[in-house]
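Batch queue: ligand-bound targets. Current item pairs a single chain with zinc ion. No template structures supplied; prediction is de novo from sequence plus SMILES. Inputs echoed for audit trail.
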Amino acid sequence: MTPLKYLAGYPQAVQEQVRRLHARGELGDYLQRRYPQRHPIQSDRALHAYIGGLKQTYLRNAPAIDKTLYDSKLDVIGKALGLHTAISRVHGGRLVAKKEIRIAAVFRETAPEFLRMIAVHELAHLKEPAHDKAFYRLCTHMEPDYHQLEFDLRVYLCWRALPAPA
Ligand SMILES: [Zn+2]
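Prediction returned. Tokens below.
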């Protein structure tokens, strides 16, 4: 059986449980019950303000973010859930590093909890580049429920990618 792409790092038993729920047609209900809302943050400008607000609250001393946008070309998992880029541009003869946060466009239509989770993830990368202990400590500092949310987000992405149960 091929591993569930978005849960590949989780134990086989967990993947089996998700498959069983899906086969019974219950995965969508599970997600809908837990995450019934949709957030209102639709434009890049609103996204920039939203993430800036979180940064102001939790990571005031991290480098400033120059640009924030929803990116429809971003492969969610290809870049480990988001894309955190420092782009170097020649600016007036000097090389200036610009901090950009790109959020995969799929997050435009998700529950507020998932947008917050991905925002926290990307913000943590301003200080911690690797997915290590220090990184996850920062994530849970900003969002105590971070690990559960990341897991449920991965389940949600699986559910979107799976064909409808027969
Ligand atoms: Zn990451």
